[in-house]
Design a protein that fits this description.
There is one protein chain. With about 130 residues, the chain is of the alpha+beta class. The chain has 3 helices and 6 strands. The protein has a 4-stranded mixed beta sheet, with helices on one face. A two-stranded antiparallel ribbon has the order 1-2. Helix 2 packs across helix 3. The longest helix is centred in the last third of the chain and has 22 residues, at about 80-100. This is RidA family protein. It comes from Mucilaginibacter aquariorum.
């Protein structure tokens, strides 16, 4: 019997802010060697991601969209909201997630972007300390 092989994952973050980058996107790549994932844990990740997405959708005061897929939550809002309310929105999301889901077994990726596609910001919702 052979030992299971670890999986490899590559994370790519892209941020496009013309004022900071002179008109070109910044791309951050981080390759990471992960541990073996138990297939039975995948529904828990999906359930947490979907539940957090529903929570964000219910508390989002703007006309935005929220999507969830495979441990990733994508929030699309207007460019004005990204430019002027990103900090407040992020605080509201973190506070709501901590209040409604104090015990989280997996990290979630939170991506907030504008509808036009000019801005994309990636954040992490950390798993809780057990």
């Amino acid at each position: 019997m052979t030992a299971p092989r670890p999986f490899y994952k590559k994370i790519c973050y892209s941020v496009f802010d013309p004022a900071l980058t002179g008109g070109s996107p910044l791309i951050f790549n981080a390759g990471a060697k992960g541990s073996n994932m138990n297939p039975l844990e995948l529904p828990q990740i999906a359930d947490l991601g979907a539940s957090v997405a529903r929570l964000i959708r219910s508390e989002l005061a703007t006309n935005g969209t929220v999507q969830a897929a495979a441990g990733q939550i994508i929030v699309s809002i207007s460019r004005f909201e990204v430019e002027h309310r990103l900090g407040n929105l992020l605080q509201q999301i973190y506070r709501s997630v901590d209040q409604h889901f104090p015990v989280r077994r997996e990290h979630l990726s939170l991506i907030i972007r504008d509808i036009d596609g000019s801005y994309e910001n990636s954040f992490k919702i950390w798993k809780s300390a057990l």
